[in-house]
């Protein structure tokens, strides 16, 4: 009998990670600032960790309307540590607020770091992180909308994400896994969207020193297969242009309902080659996604602008915003800060057509779910959730498939020390860029 294929990310150590013990409601955790947090009931499981409702008032019971959640994992596991590094370096409340004011933004969709620490129980040590509670994720909204968002909504989401990505990039990180299931609506204001899940966040410019372009066959296809960048398909560490390439794929999928390579997500080389062809001929790419009369010209301009970036080039975020705003003007709309998910697209209601299983979902059925590993699994649509995790049940996540990055500009970039070579063959086991501590 043939052996089962490896689950994503299992080839580089994660398989030996321990599972988290479930704590009883009322357990008190003390963070590094000596602040006490009281746990409520667990609301989800992410492979090796648990997510709990929480309250900062240790004297009161934690109710269903608790404003915080706490993620807990065994301390020797890596995923939560990686995410914590990002939050502690780049998501402190004062940093986010200062940026918001300087850019005159109504809000910035980056979750704030609330606290973290270590907790000993039953002879084991656990790491925990406190974060704001969020509402539903956009993947659920996408499914409910018949797998299409309105043109106006997509452009608004794109503008919010450009704000988020510029902030992250200016603080030396790239996210590398932008997608609907990692975009959560605010628990208090459904017109605000936040980018979460920084388990694959990569510090591309530690202390201002940019990483060199280098292809690593062992890390091919890291990320979520349908959205990952061409760079990631080649095993190159994430860069700023990759985040923008991924955003482009997301917006196109939200507009047309399906990317051309979604017919064969089980073959990462096929997906990679399709993306390379689409990059080489953007107009043909658009024809595969849209009818001639409905082709969004701003998407062509957006893809072409991102395509022109070298590996270490700094994106022109304002130009990209202008492109999306031009798209709003072209359809007679304006960015009114209201995210309307109720608008029917071509009369579409909840889709009755099932999309093919993603590779990560197939692998998920064959392995234990993870929550932030080198090949982190992702959230699937939830009936009702807290921070994108289904209430009262384990967190559904599709494995984090390797990312692919947008191909380099037509002309070689001076920032690219190594010429991009022919993509290496795909590997079954997934990896991720080496973490920067």
Automatic annotation (TrEMBL):
GO biological process, one term: cell division
Origin organism lineage: Eukaryota, Metazoa, Chordata, Craniata, Vertebrata
EC number: 2.7.11.1
Keyword Disulfide bond: no
Pfam families: Pkinase
Family membership: Belongs to the protein kinase superfamily. CK1 Ser/Thr protein kinase family. VRK subfamily.
Any GO CC annotation of this UniProt entry: Cajal body
Amino-acid positions noted as binding ATP in the UniProt annotation, renumbered to this chain: 71
Molecular function in Gene Ontology: ATP binding; protein serine/threonine kinase activity
PANTHER family named among the record's database cross-references: CASEIN KINASE-RELATED
Gene: vrk1
Subcellular location: Cytoplasm; Nucleus, Cajal body
Record-given protein name: Serine/threonine-protein kinase VRK1
Organism, scientific name: Chanos chanos (Milkfish)
Domain Protein kinase: residue ranges: 37-328
SMART domains attached to this UniProt entry: S_TKc
Principal EC category: transferase
Superkingdom classification of source: Eukaryota
């Amino acid at each position: 009998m043939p052996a089962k294929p490896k689950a994503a990310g299992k080839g580089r150590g994660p398989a030996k990670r321990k599972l988290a013990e479930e704590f009883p409601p009322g357990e008190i955790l003390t963070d590094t600032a000596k602040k006490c947090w009281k746990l409520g009931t667990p609301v989800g499981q992410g492979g090796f960790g648990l997510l709990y409702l929480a309250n900062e008032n240790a004297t009161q019971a934690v109710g269903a309307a608790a404003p915080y959640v706490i993620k807990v994992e065994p301390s020797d596991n890596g995923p939560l540590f990686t995410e914590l590094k990002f939050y502690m370096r780049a998501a402190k409340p004062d940093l986010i607020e200062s940026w918001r004011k300087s850019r005159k933004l109504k809000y910035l969709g980056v979750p704030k770091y609330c606290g973290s620490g270590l907790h000993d129980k039953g002879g084991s040590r656990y790491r925990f992180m406190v974060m704001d509670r969020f509402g539903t994720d956009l993947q659920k909204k996408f499914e409910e909308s018949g797998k299409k968002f309105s043109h106006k909504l997509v452009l608004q989401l794109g503008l919010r994400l450009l704000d988020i990505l510029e902030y992250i990039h200016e603080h030396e990180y790239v996210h590398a896994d932008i997608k609907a299931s990692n975009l959560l609506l605010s628990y208090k204001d459904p017109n605000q969207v936040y980018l979460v899940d920084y388990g694959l966040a990569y510090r591309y410019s530690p202390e201002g020193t940019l990483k060199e372009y280098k292809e690593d066959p062992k890390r091919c296809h890291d990320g979520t297969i349908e959205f990952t960048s061409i760079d990631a398909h080649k095993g190159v560490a994430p860069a700023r242009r990759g985040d923008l390439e991924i955003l482009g794929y997301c917006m196109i999928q939200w507009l047309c309902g399906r990317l051309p390579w979604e017919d064969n997500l089980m073959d990462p080389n096929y997906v990679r080659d399709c993306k390379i062809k689409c990059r080489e001929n953007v107009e043909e790419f658009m024809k595969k996604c849209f009818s001639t009369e409905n082709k969004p010209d701003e998407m062509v301009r957006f893809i072409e602008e991102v395509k022109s970036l070298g590996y270490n080039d700094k994106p022109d975020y304002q130009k990209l915003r202008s492109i999306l705003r031009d798209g709003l003007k072209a359809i007679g709309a304006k960015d009114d800060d209201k995210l309307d998910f109720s608008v029917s697209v071509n009369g579409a209601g909840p889709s009755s057509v099932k999309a093919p299983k993603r590779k990560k979902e197939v692998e998920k059925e064959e392995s234990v779910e993870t929550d932030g590993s080198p090949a982190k699994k992702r959230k699937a649509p939830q009936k009702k959730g807290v921070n994108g995790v289904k209430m009262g049940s384990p967190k559904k996540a599709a494995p984090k498939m390797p990312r692919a990055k947008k191909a380099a500009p037509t002309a070689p970039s001076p920032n690219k020390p190594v010429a991009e070579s022919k993509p290496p063959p795909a590997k079954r086991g997934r990896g991720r860029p080496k973490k920067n501590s």
